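Please fill in the sequence for the structure shown.

STRUCTURE ENCODING:
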């Protein structure tokens, strides 16, 4: 894989990379070189695309038989892109359908210490694309990990230029931090499939951080395997353990265990193919010893009005696809509304209603927002199938109900 962001031609012209993700059907046994040849032919015939375009139907019998989709990935905005002016990075993958395996704290206990997935996992398919944040957050995370691999390839001395392969995502609950980690791991397994023969994702449960099991774990990952490890709420666990030890309410070796966790994170630097992803629901009083080890400390807050608009838009498109909203009606993007100066007309009316609903929904978490369409249908749906206009009115009522419930909870505290 070409890790760099740009590719230099022999003539000295810089051609920016465009990533093409090719999802091969699980039952297909064809060689990846054959898939690549047919995909290049497809892209040569359709070299101008609008934004992140995805093909799911093909006029090529080979692609129809063997490929689920071909996607131009991670381009922002509805602008036309000439693929011939870019360096095409083609990533070919198939999904692993296996359920996650569980590691127990003790042989006789059912309590799971960690869950383990082989990547790319069918369970994680589409997570990355479904998460909508302010422009740049997801790209920066991908670029960060790409740079760690690139620096390792060039044998950069990590004692001179420090990086620990540790990412900290922090912010209020319900903003998609854990999902973002899963989506990032999935994305990396696809982007680095030419480099690593296998990829895996290990989610360490917070209750096992200070267990005997955790203190005895030693990483021995194969150099041919990409390993993404997720520690949820690690900051809370470390901070609580330090506070308890200092207050004398925990065993005297609590600090020793905390230091063992931090030492293990330090040892990860010896494994260039291991990435540590961590999350925290607190944004203050973060354990300083841990923060020093995190290269990226990204705040993930509640979605903005524009992000909410795109979240709702993706939900409505899905419901129209499933004929729960019918008939299908064209909804404009914010960019398209902007070109019309947000003026109301027969063409823009429904999209402007959605924009107003998004503004009205500010302050709700991403988790709550994704439930609004379901609640709208469940509580206010007059029939199994509704028009876009009727459904938007039901969503307004569902948003009002969510706000009332939040206010009631706050008053009870």
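FILLED IN BY: designer on duty
SEQUENCE:
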């Amino acid at each position: 894989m070409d890790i760099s962001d740009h590719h230099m031609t022999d003539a000295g012209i810089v051609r920016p990379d465009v990533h093409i993700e090719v999802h091969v059907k699980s039952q297909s046994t064809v060689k990846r070189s054959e898939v690549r040849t047919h995909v290049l032919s497809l892209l040569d015939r359709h070299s101008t695309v609008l934004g992140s375009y995805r093909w799911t139907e093909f006029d090529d019998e080979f692609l129809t038989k063997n490929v689920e989709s071909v996607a131009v990935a991670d381009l922002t905005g509805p602008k036309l892109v000439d693929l011939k002016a870019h360096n095409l990075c083609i990533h070919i993958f198939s999904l692993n359908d296996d359920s996650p395996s569980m590691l127990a704290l003790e042989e006789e206990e059912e309590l799971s210490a960690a869950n383990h997935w082989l990547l790319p996992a069918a369970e994680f398919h589409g997570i990355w694309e479904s998460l909508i944040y302010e422009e740049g957050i997801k790209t920066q995370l991908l670029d960060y990990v790409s740079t760690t691999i690139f620096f390792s390839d060039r044998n950069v001395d990590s004692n001179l230029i420090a990086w620990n392969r540790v990412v900290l995502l922090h912010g209020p609950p319900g903003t998609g931090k854990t999902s973002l980690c899963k989506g990032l791991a999935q994305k990396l397994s696809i982007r680095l499939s030419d480099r690593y023969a296998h990829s895996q994702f290990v989610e360490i449960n917070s209750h096992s951080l200070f267990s005997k099991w955790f203190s005895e774990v030693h990483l021995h990952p194969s150099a041919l395997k990409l390993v993404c490890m997720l520690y949820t709420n690690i900051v809370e666990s470390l901070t609580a353990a330090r506070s308890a030890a200092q207050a004398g309410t925990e065993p005297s070796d609590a600090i020793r265990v905390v230091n063992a966790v931090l030492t293990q994170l330090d040892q990860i630097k010896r494994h260039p193919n291991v990435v540590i992803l961590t999350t925290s629901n607190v944004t203050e009083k973060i354990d300083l010893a841990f923060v020093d080890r995190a290269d990226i400390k990204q705040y993930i807050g509640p979605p903005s009005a524009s992000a909410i608009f795109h979240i709702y838009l993706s939900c409505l498109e899905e419901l129209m696809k499933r004929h729960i909203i019918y008939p299908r009606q064209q909804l404009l993007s914010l960019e398209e509304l902007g070109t019309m100066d947000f003026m109301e007309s027969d063409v823009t009316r429904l999209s402007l209603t959605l924009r107003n609903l998004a503004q009205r929904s500010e302050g709700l978490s991403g988790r709550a927002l994704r439930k609004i369409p379901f609640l709208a249908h469940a509580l206010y749906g007059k029939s199994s199938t509704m028009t876009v206009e009727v459904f938007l009115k039901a969503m307004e009522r569902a948003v009002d109900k969510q706000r009332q419930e939040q206010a009631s909870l706050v008053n009870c505290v």
